[in-house]
Amino acid sequence: MLSYLNKTSIDSVMCLSERRKLSSLGKIEGVIRKFLSQYILLGMLYVQEKNDIDNSDQFFRKILHYISKDLQSCELRTEKMRKIIGDYESYSSMRVGERYKMIKSIIKILSDEDEFSLSKALEVVSEFKTELSQLENKLFCVDFDYFRNTTKELRNDINILQSFLVCGPTHRVILVPPELHSVIREVEEHLKKQVASVKNGFRGFFEYEKVVSNKWQNYRRQLWMYFYTDPQKLYFVLQQIEEEFKKQN
């Protein structure tokens, strides 16, 4: 009986000891699970934080790149603006003759003077324009009355010649040598050309004058009329032009 109680007591003690061990193991397992869960959570947070850090790093690197590039472009623009301002200041400080070198060269050719000013340039250009207008009026005067009177005289001469050579009610020339007949034909053709050129000159002049006033077209037409009706006049005009150019040079 005593041995049975002792055995029961021992079993109870051992069972209590096992329970305590299991309880301790359970607590240890809970602590380990807690540590593991915290470790895993920290790992996940670290990975997420690392991604955020990498994204932020790339973002700020791009911002720094764009800022540097824009700053460089801004420096280039600023440098160009400073250069332009400096060029303008140096240009403003120059004398008038040094600014307008081309105009100065033209004025020197027209006046043979080294001194240059805007008032002097205006004066020289005005004088040159006046001389040019006088030369145009001298060489290209409109004298259509002269051509018209010349044509009338030629027509009267032809009428007199025709009345002298034609007898009877016919318009044909009879009993005229072939040589004289050819001369008459040439004179008639020449007269027709002169009349046609004068008419075309008048007609073209008035029609063109309605559209646009171009004195050089009139001059060219007038020279052609000189060529047809009065070659000596054309030769005289060309000589006058050549002399004027020689004077200018």
Automatic annotation (TrEMBL):
It comes from the Eukaryota. This is Uncharacterized protein. It comes from Aromia moschata.
